[in-house]
Specification:
The complex is a heterodimer of chains A (about 120) and B (about 120).
Chain A lengths: L2 E3 L4 E5 L4 E3 L2 E3 L5 E8 L6 E7 L7 E2 L2 E6 L4 E6 L8 E9 L9 E2 L3 E6 L1
Parallel strand pairs in A: 2-12
Antiparallel strand pairs in A: 1-4, 3-9, 5-6, 5-10, 7-8, 8-9, 10-11, 10-12
Chain B lengths: L4 E3 L2 E4 L5 E6 L6 E7 L5 E8 L2 E5 L7 E4 L6 E5 L8 E8 L11 E2 L3 E5 L1
Parallel strand pairs in B: 2-11
Antiparallel strand pairs in B: 1-3, 3-8, 4-5, 4-9, 5-6, 7-8, 9-10, 9-11
């Protein structure tokens, strides 16, 4: 079974600085998707960025980028120029590319990011 | 941008009562899911639904839970006899393609906070 591990329960960053959130996963599959979701205090789940495992190029969305190391099964999220609105819980998630309709998301335990003014 | 809509946003119910959580997925999406997040814990998969039937359910999704899509638009989660431990945030999600289209991502609703007293 696949697992997702986030080893940093909490992180803190100064406004305008850069922070990296770690995520590792375990799978025997070769094709899958990885995601970072943001959950602000409202508790809504907001997709931040996604990565397809077959793509070697790291995904980027504005100030958010990932470092995807497939061999190491690592998927870290870098937030550049941190803003107060980035403060939230961040979840790493895995989804198999196989299995059709099921393809559930498997979440890590989350990293709570605080942004200091 | 299309949204997944969940109602109510917050529901308080007496232990032993039945509750129905409602979701309106994005209209052209084919796959539907319910996830649960107990306060302070990670997001857990409950059930996936495709082609008008359950495609997978987790151990959490016991006989007290049921899902249906009665009219082709709403997607509901029913808990027949609520327990204190059912108190959680319940998220509905939908997805369009099972393959690589759209990066295989989900769209989540904003959640229903269920409090069982």
């Amino acid at each position: 079974a696949q697992t997702v591990t986030q080893s940093q329960p909490e992180m803190s960053v100064q406004e305008a600085e850069t922070v990296t959130l770690s995520c590792t996963y375990d799978t025997s599959e070769s094709d899958y998707y990885l995601f970072w979701y943001k959950q602000p205090p409202s508790r809504q789940m907001i997709l931040v960025i996604r990565q397809e495992a077959y793509k070697q190029q790291n995904a980027t969305e504005n100030r958010f980028s990932v470092n995807f190391q497939k061999a190491a099964k690592s998927f870290s999220l870098k937030i550049s120029d941190s803003q107060l609105g980035d403060a939230a819980m961040y979840f790493c998630a895995y989804r198999s590319a196989y299995g059709g309709a099921t393809n559930k998301l498997i979440f890590g335990t989350g990293t709570l990011l605080a942004v200091q003014p | 941008e299309p949204e997944v809509t969940q109602t109510p946003s917050h529901q308080v119910t007496q232990m032993g009562q039945e509750v129905i959580l409602r979701c309106v997925p994005i209209s052209n999406h084919l796959y539907f899911y319910w996830y649960r997040q107990i306060l302070g814990q990670k997001v857990e998969f409950l059930v996936s639904f495709y082609n008008n039937e359950i495609s997978e359910k987790s151990e959490i999704f016991d006989d007290q839970f049921s899902v249906e899509r009665p009219d082709g638009s709403n997607f509901t989660l029913k808990i027949r006899s609520t327990k204190l431990e059912d108190s959680a945030m319940y998220f509905c999600a939908s997805r369009f393609l099972r393959g690589t289209g759209q990066g295989g991502g989900y769209t989540f609703g904003s959640g229903t906070r269920l409090t069982v007293v």
